[in-house]
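Quick one from the shared queue. A colleague (R.T.) flagged NlpC/P60 domain-containing protein as missing a structural entry in our internal table.

Convert sequence to structure tokens.
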Amino acid sequence: MGKRRQRPTWVYAVLASIIGLFLTASPALADTDLVVGGAGVVSYTNGDGVNARAEPGFQGALVTAFAEGTRVLVEAGPQAAADGTLWYKVSLDGVSGWVISDYLARAMPAAGDVAIVHGTDGHGLRLRDGASFNSATLTIIPEGAEVAVVGETVRDGEGNAWSQVSYAGISGYAFSSFLAVKLGGSVAQAQEAQVASEPSASAGIAVGGNVEVVNTDGQGLNIRYDAGYGAAIATVAPEGAVMRVIDGPRTDDQGITWWGVDYAGIQGWAHGGYLAATDKEPAQPTAQTTAAPANPGDPGQGSAAPASSIGEQIAATAMQYLGYPYAWGGTTPAGFDCSGFVYYVVNQV
């Protein structure tokens, strides 16, 4: 048997050098969640910046270069080049070009920014009183609405990013993944108009009668566990839903009138400005009308919305989606994966 031929040691040295160079020069995994019309930021270039080209692909003529950390407006994309790489068309100060997605990231909201609610599939984004999924819901910001970012990004114990924002005069924390930074502009006037035009309590509502959900622009009405925006949301009644009035009226510290209602067996409190008295009957049987509790904070006094633990609420919500389809990367009832299902359910509580 002949002696096996040994490769020279320099071969291994060259291979190691090539591998090291490849690992050093390779960009991070491409970000393809940039929002057209939102802001991206030049990232992962090790300070070298990135070239912008006249068309998608490395064959495109060089137009300009953007420095690391530069915020750019995303105009189009992602678009695949002939070699399979993905590119976004971006612009800054009137100069636009195509940048490979490997060196772009979605801009994180910062104090002073205007951001747009995006990616909720029409469900809207919960504004909470703290930077965690366990914090109470103040309101739901509809898809496409603009918010003012009033504080820096904070992270919860699990590393999730939360942005401190203001919407319609209400300040709180919103999950940053559903906010797309808008370059320039202001939302102050739109917010003031929205607050000023908030509907007043409807006439003709009385305990024992029925009410219909109105004036929500199709977003539906939050049914809360207590009277006030600071109370957690029990469910959302769609536009046009008919409910039985079981309690109220009650006025919160902002002067808003709330009515105790029974919607499909779920009892809670609804903003009177989005209710109209009706002769229609609820589509499903409702619970019997109950008297106002002597102490609304004591569940033992028969309050209209008995308290339950966060864990019980999460479990009850999760059970509603048994049998829904699995979809890799899915985060809505159209299709969930594991983490998407957990996030969706927790965000409903």
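Residues 1-5, 14-29, 188-201, 285-308 have pLDDT under 50 and may be disordered.
Residues 9-25 form the longest helix (17 residues).
Added to the table.
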